[in-house]
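=== Per-residue structure ===
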Amino acid sequence: MRGDYDTFHSVSARLELNNIRKAYGTRVILDGASVSLSDDQKVGVIGRNGAGKSTLCRIITGHEEADAGTVNKSAGFRLAYLEQLDPYRLDETVIDFLRRYTGKEDWQCGKVAGSFQLKNDLLKTEIGSLPGGYRTRVKLASMLLTDPNFLIMDEPTNYLDLKTLMLFEEFLQDFRGGFMVVSHDREFLMRTCTHTLDIERGDCTLYPGTVEEYLIFKEEQKEQAISHNKNVEAKQRQLKLFITRFGAKASKATQAKSKMKQLARLKTIEVGHALGNVSIRMPNVEKQNKDAIVCKDLAIGYPGKRVADKINMEILHGKHVAVLGDNGQGKTTFLRTIAGDLEPRGGTFKWGHGLEIGYYAQHVFTALDSNSDVYTHLADHAAPGVSRQDILNLAGSFLFKGDDVKKRISVLSGGERARVCLASLLLAKRHVLIFDEPTNHLDFETVEALGHALKTFAGTVFFVSHDRTFVNLVATEIIEVHNGAVRRHAGNYEDYVYHLEKRIQEELKTGIVTDGPSSTNHRKNESQPGRPADHSRRDQRKILSQIKKVEERLELQKKKLAEIEREFTADGAGWSRERNARYAELEQSILADENLWIELNAKLEI
């Protein structure tokens, strides 16, 4: 994913935010937020839904004005924003849109688009016929063509399939500028960001480390504050007792006054809510030893379009099934069919006797009754016998505490509405839960709390998600939807991710796209728009480009190998099975790339 369109910066340009304040009515979102960023920092933005992450992004990009404070960019700070609204027309081809939107020549557009595996026939494809993940790739390419050195991205990973997510990570790891990215996906932030920006209670805290390092640091700070407060409170009690006993005695008056001054100086430290205090309890459902669902020659799709057929499987009750695959392959179609939302196009499926199904669709939160309040919605969807206290307890676990349950749906953010839908589904006490992208619009502590809760669920779960932390927590079975087939995947989720990573690396090495929205694979020697027709010169340029990529990849891999070697000798670290396996894998990868480098250079000499 490296490209020479990334500009190397010897002197950092800076972005300064000073005392930013923003309120909507009486609700203060940002209150004196200040932060300084340079164009070589890769910053993951975290914070609860409604904390002000998106608001801060829009203020930086000029899409929204702060009520007070300033935003200053130094000379040379070139900002690009990954738009939430689609800037293309659906009837435009990829290459036509990129040329129109950026003003760049065809070969420049093709070069950058190729970094996201948008090549050959895909460049001439109408954007409206591409699945969501590929449309996001088009937007990313358009952003890069403006030659920015700092990117602002608000939830770019929502609705990306795993393969596109990995390509996106590859790009961000290699991007020579800086960026600020809002995401709920902890693993994505860990893989791409070197700094963490926490937005909480109207203010910003920039930490020079990964999100996991920051959360550990924050928890340590919290524990130190709690310990400090306990000591202060004990000292306050001692001083108050002395003043009460001896304040009226003339012989102790001077000492009592001194103690009163000491008491006035003693201050406790405010302890904010930790990010990780969301705790979700799953309502109990009865364990059953039988098949949850049986599919026989099931075909799925829509009138006039069959997406997949010959689906044969039996899933035992109590299994937690992750449904994986590229966008546009039919994951949602499969879920909608077994949820009863779509008619089968052939064959049959049958749920176990007496099993009740609960279904969470991708955009279900947009259909809530705006005039209802949180508690009323939850109560209306709760199973018979669920008490008011049970409803309040589950609402509280989704961060609707106290008077928050009286809030109207109309004033809730997208993330808050998603929480309401998830809570109502759990309160319904269904034996089978079907989730289509449940983690979108949730902050990552809620994502992980939901994952831990579902892990203990005795019922059956089918779900689509590309959040690797969430899938790792929940999945006991893997189903892959791919090229018109829906079948169980042999192995666990880590095996699946490993094979997908290998497939992507092979594509990046060879330039051959093995999967895509088109049914035909694209050959790497097909021409791109605007390229010269001289085959030998074209092939030579491709080989030189491949050599450059191999050299850069080798440099990165050797740095990672050196890091692991340092970890082996670091205090308290040393050997571990995972670290040893990663070391061996890197050695093999370096050897393969060195052999590839020799082969490519040999081709140049022929």
